[in-house]
Amino acid sequence: MSARTTGSEPVVQLDGLVKRFGDVEVLRGIDLQVARGEVVCVIGPSGSGKSTLLRCVNLLEQPSGGRVVVRGTDVTDPDCDIDAVRRHVGMVFQAFNLFPHLTVLENCTVAQRKVAKVGKEQAQQRAQHHLGRVGLGDRGDAYPAQLSGGQQQRVAIARALSMEPDLMLFDEPTSALDPELVGDVLEVMRGLADEGMTMLVVTHEMAFARQVADRVVFMDGGVVVEEGPPSQVVDAPREARTRDFLDRVL
Ligand code: ADP
Ligand code: MG
Asked: Model-level pTM?
């Protein structure tokens, strides 16, 4: 089923999102929208709440306040069927989190079979299609340990794509990779963006943010300090905190 039929409502809408761990307020009222087909990169220092924000979108963390609306569904509503929402949201983590005892192809079919109840043959076809898309069409029988980190991360992307998501969340997908393996993963992500995938990407790759993001969001201390097109936020930041951060990473 194509889910690209829901009109112009944002795919993600955060209204005053607050997240506390005990007494510590990690997200302090985040307002953010991601439109269909948009690529939004979130940048900011370590500990600023970027991962927590991403994890609140698919309720890996339970928000303490505010609203999280995904594809028109308020996921903070206790009656919300979060599994139904998650089926349309792919997530790729810094650590690839592949199942080590399953082959590459099985890694890409297991959620389809068990969560989305897709038949075996169709699941394999889809998996094969997406493995081809990430340049690993011939590695379906390999086990994760036989692949490089960059290849494993591309499998993780193919696995997420095999669920035919409407939205992809990336949390520093290249941070754990050796420098020479980063490019292939970014290339796959760039291809996805070109095909119109809606993407929310936490990254320290400023060149990627510059070239691929429609919008860059700079977070610090649990708030959005500045957001706008990369030509503004990355190349001509208005806020001192953004400038300080960029001076350190660029
Ligand atoms: P970032 O991804 O920007 O580095 P995080 O969202 O991981 O930041 O973390 C933001 C803050 O929340 C940090 O101070 C971190 O220690 C804290 N934090 C994150 N997860 C938890 C948790 N499960 N329990 C307690 N504190 C947490
Ligand atoms: Mg993080």
From this structure: 0.95
